[in-house]
Amino acid sequence: MTGYEAIVYDLDGTLVDLDVDWNAVAVDVREVYTAANVDPPSDGLWDMLEVAADVGLADEVEAAIAAHEHDGARTSVRLAHADELLERSLPAGVCSLNCERACRIALDEHALDDAVDAVVGRDTVDTWKPDPEPLLATVRVLEVEPAAALFIGDSARDRHAAERAGMDFEYVGEGPSGV
Fewest CB atoms within 10 Å of the CB: 60, 64, 113, 173? Predict the structure, then answer.
Protein backbone atom coordinates (compact mmCIF):
# COMPACT_ATOMS: atom_id res chain seq x y z
CA MET A 1 0.00 0.00 0.00
CA THR A 2 2.98 2.30 -0.06
CA GLY A 3 3.26 4.78 -2.86
CA TYR A 4 -0.36 5.96 -2.77
CA GLU A 5 -1.39 9.47 -1.80
CA ALA A 6 -4.97 8.49 -0.88
CA ILE A 7 -7.19 5.46 -0.32
CA VAL A 8 -10.82 5.24 -1.39
CA TYR A 9 -13.09 2.57 0.05
CA ASP A 10 -16.39 1.17 -1.05
CA LEU A 11 -18.78 1.14 1.93
CA ASP A 12 -21.11 -1.88 2.01
CA GLY A 13 -19.17 -5.12 2.08
CA THR A 14 -15.89 -3.27 2.57
CA LEU A 15 -16.01 -1.06 5.68
CA VAL A 16 -19.40 -2.20 7.00
CA ASP A 17 -22.17 -4.63 6.14
CA LEU A 18 -25.39 -2.69 5.84
CA ASP A 19 -28.28 -4.49 7.47
CA VAL A 20 -30.49 -4.36 4.38
CA ASP A 21 -32.74 -7.04 2.92
CA TRP A 22 -32.19 -6.19 -0.75
CA ASN A 23 -35.06 -8.48 -1.80
CA ALA A 24 -37.41 -6.41 0.36
CA VAL A 25 -36.01 -3.25 -1.21
CA ALA A 26 -36.76 -4.64 -4.67
CA VAL A 27 -40.33 -5.43 -3.59
CA ASP A 28 -40.80 -1.85 -2.35
CA VAL A 29 -39.36 -0.40 -5.55
CA ARG A 30 -41.64 -2.63 -7.61
CA GLU A 31 -44.55 -1.22 -5.58
CA VAL A 32 -43.47 2.28 -6.65
CA TYR A 33 -43.76 1.18 -10.27
CA THR A 34 -47.12 -0.51 -9.61
CA ALA A 35 -48.53 2.57 -7.85
CA ALA A 36 -47.53 4.67 -10.87
CA ASN A 37 -49.07 2.11 -13.25
CA VAL A 38 -45.69 1.63 -14.96
CA ASP A 39 -44.31 -1.78 -15.91
CA PRO A 40 -40.82 -2.23 -14.45
CA PRO A 41 -38.07 -3.46 -16.80
CA SER A 42 -37.60 -6.54 -14.59
CA ASP A 43 -37.81 -7.55 -10.94
CA GLY A 44 -34.12 -6.65 -10.52
CA LEU A 45 -33.51 -3.73 -8.19
CA TRP A 46 -30.70 -2.19 -10.23
CA ASP A 47 -32.67 -2.58 -13.46
CA MET A 48 -35.58 -0.70 -11.88
CA LEU A 49 -33.25 2.00 -10.54
CA GLU A 50 -31.50 2.44 -13.89
CA VAL A 51 -34.72 3.18 -15.81
CA ALA A 52 -36.53 5.07 -13.04
CA ALA A 53 -35.59 8.50 -14.43
CA ASP A 54 -36.73 7.51 -17.92
CA VAL A 55 -40.23 6.72 -16.62
CA GLY A 56 -40.49 9.69 -14.23
CA LEU A 57 -39.99 7.69 -11.03
CA ALA A 58 -36.43 8.64 -10.06
CA ASP A 59 -37.31 10.50 -6.86
CA GLU A 60 -39.78 7.87 -5.64
CA VAL A 61 -37.47 4.94 -6.40
CA GLU A 62 -34.52 6.70 -4.78
CA ALA A 63 -36.59 7.43 -1.66
CA ALA A 64 -37.71 3.80 -1.38
CA ILE A 65 -34.15 2.50 -1.63
CA ALA A 66 -32.68 5.19 0.63
CA ALA A 67 -35.18 4.49 3.43
CA HIS A 68 -33.93 0.91 3.66
CA GLU A 69 -30.30 2.03 3.43
CA HIS A 70 -30.70 4.59 6.22
CA ASP A 71 -32.19 1.99 8.55
CA GLY A 72 -29.59 -0.59 7.52
CA ALA A 73 -26.76 1.85 8.12
CA ARG A 74 -27.91 2.39 11.71
CA THR A 75 -27.72 -1.34 12.43
CA SER A 76 -24.77 -2.17 10.18
CA VAL A 77 -21.87 -4.37 11.25
CA ARG A 78 -18.36 -2.97 11.24
CA LEU A 79 -15.81 -4.93 9.17
CA ALA A 80 -12.05 -5.36 9.53
CA HIS A 81 -11.19 -2.77 6.89
CA ALA A 82 -12.80 -0.15 9.12
CA ASP A 83 -9.98 -0.69 11.62
CA GLU A 84 -7.47 -0.42 8.77
CA LEU A 85 -9.05 2.90 7.77
CA LEU A 86 -8.52 4.25 11.28
CA GLU A 87 -4.88 3.16 11.28
CA ARG A 88 -4.03 4.94 8.01
CA SER A 89 -2.48 8.37 7.84
CA LEU A 90 -3.37 8.91 4.17
CA PRO A 91 -6.39 10.95 3.12
CA ALA A 92 -9.34 8.60 2.74
CA GLY A 93 -12.63 8.66 0.93
CA VAL A 94 -15.73 6.53 0.55
CA CYS A 95 -17.30 5.92 -2.86
CA SER A 96 -20.44 3.83 -2.69
CA LEU A 97 -23.51 2.64 -4.58
CA ASN A 98 -25.43 3.43 -1.39
CA CYS A 99 -26.91 6.88 -0.99
CA GLU A 100 -24.62 9.47 0.58
CA ARG A 101 -26.73 9.90 3.72
CA ALA A 102 -26.62 6.14 4.44
CA CYS A 103 -22.84 6.25 4.03
CA ARG A 104 -22.59 9.11 6.50
CA ILE A 105 -24.92 7.37 8.97
CA ALA A 106 -22.83 4.18 8.86
CA LEU A 107 -19.57 6.10 9.21
CA ASP A 108 -20.99 7.96 12.20
CA GLU A 109 -22.39 4.79 13.80
CA HIS A 110 -18.95 3.18 13.69
CA ALA A 111 -16.94 6.30 14.63
CA LEU A 112 -15.29 6.39 11.21
CA ASP A 113 -16.49 9.80 10.05
CA ASP A 114 -13.41 11.68 11.30
CA ALA A 115 -11.15 9.33 9.31
CA VAL A 116 -12.93 10.04 6.01
CA ASP A 117 -12.29 13.22 4.06
CA ALA A 118 -14.71 12.63 1.16
CA VAL A 119 -18.00 10.75 0.78
CA VAL A 120 -19.59 10.14 -2.60
CA GLY A 121 -22.77 8.11 -2.73
CA ARG A 122 -25.14 7.00 -5.46
CA ASP A 123 -26.94 10.34 -5.30
CA THR A 124 -23.91 12.64 -4.98
CA VAL A 125 -23.11 12.77 -8.69
CA ASP A 126 -25.24 12.06 -11.77
CA THR A 127 -23.87 8.55 -12.41
CA TRP A 128 -22.92 5.56 -10.31
CA LYS A 129 -20.32 2.83 -10.44
CA PRO A 130 -19.09 1.31 -12.71
CA ASP A 131 -19.10 4.75 -14.34
CA PRO A 132 -15.81 6.37 -13.25
CA GLU A 133 -17.32 9.76 -12.27
CA PRO A 134 -18.12 8.84 -8.62
CA LEU A 135 -14.50 7.78 -8.07
CA LEU A 136 -13.17 10.80 -9.92
CA ALA A 137 -15.36 13.07 -7.79
CA THR A 138 -14.00 11.38 -4.66
CA VAL A 139 -10.34 11.88 -5.60
CA ARG A 140 -11.03 15.50 -6.63
CA VAL A 141 -12.21 16.20 -3.08
CA LEU A 142 -9.10 14.39 -1.77
CA GLU A 143 -7.02 16.57 -4.13
CA VAL A 144 -5.07 13.69 -5.66
CA GLU A 145 -4.76 12.36 -9.18
CA PRO A 146 -6.60 9.08 -9.84
CA ALA A 147 -3.32 7.26 -10.54
CA ALA A 148 -2.10 8.24 -7.05
CA ALA A 149 -5.06 6.61 -5.28
CA LEU A 150 -6.07 3.04 -4.48
CA PHE A 151 -9.70 1.94 -4.50
CA ILE A 152 -10.64 -0.95 -2.20
CA GLY A 153 -13.95 -2.67 -2.84
CA ASP A 154 -15.80 -5.95 -2.93
CA SER A 155 -17.46 -6.16 -6.33
CA ALA A 156 -16.67 -6.45 -10.02
CA ARG A 157 -18.53 -3.15 -10.42
CA ASP A 158 -15.97 -1.56 -8.06
CA ARG A 159 -13.06 -3.01 -10.06
CA HIS A 160 -14.52 -1.79 -13.36
CA ALA A 161 -15.07 1.69 -11.93
CA ALA A 162 -11.45 1.83 -10.76
CA GLU A 163 -10.16 0.70 -14.16
CA ARG A 164 -12.25 3.32 -15.93
CA ALA A 165 -11.07 6.01 -13.51
CA GLY A 166 -7.40 5.09 -13.96
CA MET A 167 -7.02 3.94 -10.35
CA ASP A 168 -5.41 0.85 -8.88
CA PHE A 169 -7.87 -1.57 -7.29
CA GLU A 170 -7.78 -4.15 -4.54
CA TYR A 171 -10.49 -6.59 -3.55
CA VAL A 172 -11.45 -6.70 0.11
CA GLY A 173 -11.58 -10.49 0.04
CA GLU A 174 -10.87 -13.30 -2.34
CA GLY A 175 -12.67 -11.74 -5.28
CA PRO A 176 -15.92 -10.16 -6.38
CA SER A 177 -19.11 -10.41 -4.43
CA GLY A 178 -22.43 -8.65 -4.63
CA VAL A 179 -23.36 -5.96 -7.11
Answer: 173
